[in-house]
Amino acid sequence: MFDLWFQVTVILALTLFNAVFAMSEIAVISSRKARLRQRADDGDRGARVALELVENPDRFLSTIQVGITLIGVVSGAFGGATMAGQVGDLFREIEWLSAWADAIGFVLVVVLIAFLTLLLGELVPKRVALLNPEAIASHVARPMRGLSRLAGPAVTLLSQSTGLILRSMRLRDVVAPPVTQEEISIMIEQGQQAGIFEKVERELVERVFRLGDRHVSAVMTPRTEIVWVDVEEPIGDVMRAMTSAPHTYYPVCRGSVEHVVGMVSVKDQWVRMVNKQPPDIKATLMPPLFVPENVPALRLLEQFKQAGRHVALVVDEYGSVSGLVTLNDVLEAIVGDIPASNRPEDQDAVQRPDGSWLFDGGITIDRVMELCRIDEVPPEDEGLYDTLAGMLMARLGRIPRVGDTLTWLEAKFEVVDMDGHRVDKVLVYPPPPEPTSGSAEALAP
Fold it and tell me: Which of 19, 68, 422, 423 could cysteine-pair with 125, CB 3.0–4.6 Å?
């Protein structure tokens, strides 16, 4: 009986070693580099070693596999060679089972070892590792690195053999990014559902991602809507034009917007008047900042910071002015409309009592999608347009006319007003909301 308990103790010890290997494997694989790096920066040496294993896991995983395989082989051989016979002797004393005693003993030992290995050697330690992978990886990293060095020849042989087989199959390692935009979006969505993030925080992050994929042309004021002043006009007319429009900066041109001589600030003119000096456009001119229309919108923020400006003129590939963009335009793309006391209420989007929307043709397609609960633009439409009018032209294949209708992403669009060749007003009926589980049950017969 003593020999049997000794053998059980050996099997349990092997199972414990298997558990350590399984827990180490899951902890290292599941650890996030950012958290390990933070622990390493705080002085945790184990986290520094774990970070090395995460970045170069080949030898570590080979070591784990060698250990788990050897433990499985030893457990099976030890149990089959010793314990099965002794357990069979117990059943041999039962007369009607004596003929099958050896088989019963072998099956019971195999089932017992398999159960212990799966439960205590695999499932439980892996679940434990997932609870706090970075902490566990920091504790086991240095012992595992030492074991990897001891098993160096076997690990090297396995690694080289694996690489040879993969090359013969024409498979190569693919360096995947540590994190993707889609993964971050999913994590933030799950965080909102768990109450970690507020809804507004999720919306801000999603808008930043969308802005990162857009160019300056998507947020600028188009050329036809730029309010500019002529440097040759009388100063009185210029001041009346500047004070009648809700803007802070104005392009100063000579004859047309194609001949920009500088930018002028309303604030500079008021400062001159407070100092009892007459307003003077030419004396306060600032050199204009020009940016290409295909510059990413987020990169424009860096250009504003470097130039110390809040406004820039957008030029196309031929050097012609195509629009004007301000820092406020970029911020509104992130946080939404920023109301100002010196400008009238925005009428780009007006919701009607029946739930439909009346949009200005120049409204951005992103805002239309947000207000109409449309998730994403079809892949084939990516980069084709920035505004609602652009979408209508792309879909119709011509300049729209009053009365034109189309259905796009389950929403119905109707052109209700044109200003020459410009789409002025569009009536949009959003797609019907998806029924909730409660309403679906209520409608069920």
Answer: 19
Above 80 in pLDDT, residue 96?
A: no
pLDDT of residue 206: 85
Instruction: Give me the phi and psi of 183, to 5 degrees please.
Output: -65, -40
- Where does residue 81 rank: exposed (0-12), middle (13-18), buried (19+ CB within 10 A)? exposed
How far is Cα 283 from Cα 150, in angstroms, rounded to an integer? 79
- Mean pLDDT over the full length of the chain: 83
For the chain, the maximum distance between any two Cα atoms, rounded to a whole number of angstroms, is 122
Answer yes or no: is pLDDT of 435 > 70: no
pTM of this prediction? 0.59
Q: Which domains does the chain have, with CATH numbers?
A: 2-168 (no CATH), 181-211 (no CATH), 216-335 (3.10.580.10), 349-429 (3.30.465.10)
Which residue's entry shows tokens 């768990």? 194
Length of the chain: 445
